[in-house]
Every structure is written in C-alpha cells, then in structure tokens.
Amino acid sequence: MPDVRARSPRVRRAAAGAAALVAATLACASPAAAARPSTTEYRVTFHAEMSERWEFRELSSRECTVGRCVREEKGAGSARITLDSAGPTPVTVLRTGGNAAPMIHVGTDGLALRGSYRRDGAHTTDYSGEWESANPDEAEATTGCGARSFKTGLGFDWAGRRELRVVTAIDQMRADCPSGPPNFDWDDGAPDLSAVLAAASRSRFGKTRQFTVRGQRKWTGTVPPMNRTDPDDTFQRSGSVEATWQWQATFQRRKR
Fold first, then answer.
1. Do strands 163-168 and 185-186 pair parallel, antiparallel, or not at all (unpaired)?
2. Residue 43 domain-assigned?
3. What 3-state DSSP class applies to 50?
4. Which residues form the signal peptide (predicted)?
5. Extended strands (E) in the chain
6. Distance (Å) of CA 154 to CA 44, 169, 214
7. Contact indicator for 255, 43 with CB cutoff of 8 Å
8. Does residue 179 fall inside a structural domain?
9. Could you tell me the pTM of the whole model?
10. Nearest one of 226, 238, 243, 110 to 172, comparing CA atoms
C-alpha cells in the first residue's frame, strides 16, 4: 500500500501557512482597514484521476558458435489513481483587498481525500537458441499488483494571477509490480498532480455562489531507441509511456 498520510509535511506546510495568514490579517488590521478583509465559507467537492500506460521491448540476436543466441525482454502495464473528497467539505476563502490573491484555507491537515490506486503489468526476459539452456527465463514479481486504497490531504495554491494548483503528496511507488524500465525519459518531468495548473478567476472566490475549477495535463516519455540491423548482431529497443492527470473542484457558497 502506498505510504501516504493525510498529515504529509507538504500539505501541512501549505495549510499552516494559509491559517497563519488568515489569523494575522484579521488580528492586525487597523481600524481604518478592518472592514477591508473578508471571509466567505464554501463547501468544496473534489475529484482527481490519473491514467498511465507503458510498453517496452528489447531484442538481441547474434551469431553464436552453433546457431544464434537470442535474448528478448518485453513488458507492458497500466496504472490508475482516483481521489475524491468524502463529500462537500467546508473551506474558508479570505480576501484582503487590493491585488492580493484570495487565500483558500482548508484546515491544518488539508482537504481530506480518499484514494484508490491500481497498478498492473508484466515484465519478462526470455532466452532462446544457444543461450536457452544456460539462462532460465525471468519474470518480475507481480504479487504487489492490483488495487490499494489510501488517504491523503490537499491544499490549494496560486501558481499565477489566473492559475490555481493543488498541493498534495501521493507515493506512486509499488513494490513487486512492474512499472516499466528505469530508463524512461519523460519529455517534461515526471507526472505530478501538483504540476497540473487550472485556469481560475480570482474574482470568483468570495463573490460567486457556485463555480468549478478544472485542470488537466498529459506527459509522454520514451526509452532511448536503437535499431542495429547487422545480420550477425541484431539489436532493437523501443518503449513508450503516457500518463494523464486531471482534477476538478466545485466551490459552493454556504448559506448564512
């Protein structure tokens, strides 16, 4: 099971910073500016999901003393993660006036989420020809594959004037389940839910009764390819991986 906890340091730091700013802003405002800061209570429903697929093949075939020596390594797999809030969860939006971004306070431990993480795959190495008798075929363990549940916390942070992101921690490592070769080269960094930026208008927070914020991003990667076609020493290698994260959060203002 992924070792992910609601009280992850990353989420706690973001939530604690927001809480401290809320308290300091309201407590230290001068009488003239006391009416400027405002808070609005919302209920938030959150959902996120990740899908991943990968495949890999490496073939070596060369002339040996008698016949050929052949080694073929291949694999394929997939993964899926879903995250959901238990239901509409209370959050507080603080506006301090001016050009300051609205702060979204989700509590000390972050917005509580329940997750499901499923990974499946196979990765084998087969020998044939002269190599067959001296090299037993190999297969990576799959006892760790399947679905697991976990819990984590989440916060919100502004990445720009019109871009909102989530702050969370999800451990996608899974022992004893193939997840592809170690030499995948991601085109733009490894997949990360916190790197998914959603277009969001700051003016909606605290002013609009109900709205939804959505974000999505896709990552692709490859294994450095090779295709040596020498009949006496053939070598081929190829592989690809694709992953997509998407999330949405619906904010509904609480009735007073």
1. unpaired
2. yes
3. strand
4. 1-34
5. 38-63, 68-85, 89-95, 103-105, 111-129, 138-139, 146-160, 163-168, 185-186, 198-199, 210-222, 226-230, 233-253
6. 12, 8, 15
7. no
8. yes
9. 0.82
10. 243
Under 8 Å between Cβ of 118 and 80: yes
| Domain presence at residue 160 | yes
What is the C-alpha separation between 43 and 38, in angstroms, rounded? Answer: 17
DSSP-based three-state secondary structure for 23 = helix
Rounded CA separation 105/92 (Å) = 5
State the residue range of the domain holding 183. 9-253
Tell me which H or E stretch contains 22: helix 9-28
3-state SS string over 168-232?
Answer: ECCCCCCCCCCCCCCCCEEECECCCHHHCCEECCHHHCCCCCEEEEEEEEEEEEECCCEEEEECC
Residue 231 vs residues 59, 103, 197, 246, 253: alpha-carbon distances, Å: 13, 65, 50, 46, 70
4 located within any domain: no
Beta bridge partners of 46: 249
Q: What percent of the chain has pLDDT over 70?
A: 86
Question: pLDDT of 204-241, one tens digit each?
Answer: 999 899 999 999 999 999 999 999 999 999 999 999 99
Q: What is the pLDDT of residues 113-125, one digit of tens each?
A: 999 999 999 999 9
**By the 8 A CB rule, do 62 and 234 touch?**
yes
Alpha carbons 113 and 126: distance in angstroms, whole number: 42
The residue among 223, 177, 248, 219 whose CA lies nearest residue 51 is 219
